[in-house]
């Protein structure tokens, strides 16, 4: 039971406690933890000796804290829970609470490397059918390894950063032309934030996932389908996905998701030993995609074919190391039903079947001025949900063409 006004029973109660970085006026960015519709200034809390993390909470990004590792993450979480539930601390802590409305949330961590997977069987099958109608939708490797590619860390931006429509080459019957993308899309995903690095040559086994991964964010991997369709063979996505990837401002710790683990779909054929995770668990996260105020889709994360532990094991199995701040995203989350798809490519079946928004507006792909908000919840203790916040972006017109 927390003493913080309005926080008891909220999706952001003491069972959640996501971390973020905020600015207030022109003061430098500092770390906070969300409680209800308030934020506890952890920079001030550590300065006052209320919580101790060796100074890691007095940084302008979460990276030093992420590097500490699970025993320290748990100790800090227990201490914050104690501060927010023991009325004896109220007098000291309450002055360090700030209304969220008074702060600006900024990028919570410095992204090391960014990897994007392709782990939803429904999404991969749909995209295969749309992009390659004459071929088998899933290539022979798909059920043997989590397919992924290395993305662009430098263009990962926090929610509410405007998304500039990308320009590039697209194919026409008369050959390629250059211009602003005409098929700009979203990809609703979940991102995993690496805290503890691994050493080169030392793969992270599936059962060490929780030693390395601190928590999760929501991801919108903006994608230009016209650029993608022309450029992606044989090396995969390049400029079609490198211009902006938005993440939610709150990093929800795995500790807050203890009630959300569910059996992941059975894998057939059986996977190679290094990918065998026992128990084979996914997270029951329920996403919602809102397009200009209309909810158009509800992607279910629980059905993802490859788990986050398998993805990390695969990402490092060749000896590649991970660093603090590395981000790897699940891949677009789509369920079996059209109303559960995580991209507008699927929702409108390649643009052939427009979707109706409120006020009689119809859409296939994104137009300038459109806003997409992806939010999510997870089951928490005692029937309370865990809020995962939201990732939002508004499309602004393409910049000037190159000279
Ligand atoms: O050509 C394909 O099959 C890939 C299409 C994608 O857009 C996949 C992607 O970005 C990974 C994902 O988010 O699932
Ligand atoms: Ca993606
Ligand atoms: Mg991207």
From TrEMBL:
PANTHER family: FUMARYLACETOACETASE. The active site is at residue 123. Pathway: Amino-acid degradation; L-phenylalanine degradation; acetoacetate and fumarate from L-phenylalanine: step 6/6. This is fumarylacetoacetase. Ca(2+) binds at residues 116, 187, 189, 221. One of its GO terms (biological process) is L-tyrosine catabolic process. It is an enzyme of class 3 (hydrolase). Keywords: Calcium, Hydrolase, Magnesium, Metal-binding, Phenylalanine catabolism, Tyrosine catabolism. Signal peptide: none annotated. Substrate binds at residues 118, 132, 228, 232, 332. Mg(2+) binds at residues 221, 241, 245. One of its GO terms (molecular function) is metal ion binding. It comes from the Bacteria. Residues 116-395 form the Fumarylacetoacetase-like C-terminal domain. Residues 15-108 form the Fumarylacetoacetase N-terminal domain. Its cofactor is Mg(2+); Ca(2+). Transmembrane segments: none annotated. InterPro entries: Fumarylacetoacetase (IPR005959), Fumarylacetoacetase-like_C (IPR011234), Fumarylacetoacetase_C_sf (IPR036663), Fumarylacetoacetase_N (IPR015377), Fumarylacetoacetase_N_sf (IPR036462). Its EC number is 3.7.1.2.
